[in-house]
Amino acid sequence: MDAVTIFHVLQILEERRIHLRLARDRPDTIRVDATLCGLRLEIDCFEDGHIEISTFKGTEDIDGGYDELTKILNHYVME
Questions:
Q1: Of the residues 6, 12, 50, 59, which has the fewest C-beta atoms closer than 10 A?
Q2: Its domain of life (predicted)?
Q3: What does residue 9 show for φ and ψ, rounded to 5 degrees?
């Protein structure tokens, strides 16, 4: 397969009217976060032209409020 540019990925998502955000967490990638109902995609577009995709599926149910947030942060985030 030919190299895929970030512009190809953006064009496909925009043509389908999919909400997206760009992020740059690593020096060799631009990440596209795309949000669909019940699915979130993280699309890493590498400078060499390949992409890697992670998917996160969910029901989009509300899991709680402030108490749930602090419980999650206390469990997963080290001070």
A1: 59
A2: Bacteria
A3: -60, -45
The rounded radius of gyration (Å) of the Cα atoms in the chain is: 16
- Tens digit of each residue's pLDDT (9 = 90 or more) over 29-55: 999 999 998 899 999 999 999 999 999
Cα gap 10→60, rounded to integer Å: 24
Neighbours of 32 (CB within 10 A): 21
Contacts of 75-78 spanning 24+ positions with Cβ under 8 A: none
21 - beta bridge partners? 33
Q: Tell me whether residue 5 is exposed, middle or buried, using C-beta atoms within 10 angstroms of its C-beta: 0 to 12, 13 to 18, 19 or more.
A: middle
Work out the angle at residue 19's Cα, subtended by the Cα atoms of residues 15 and 23, and round it to the nearest 5 degrees.
110
On whether the pTM is more than 0.70, the answer is yes
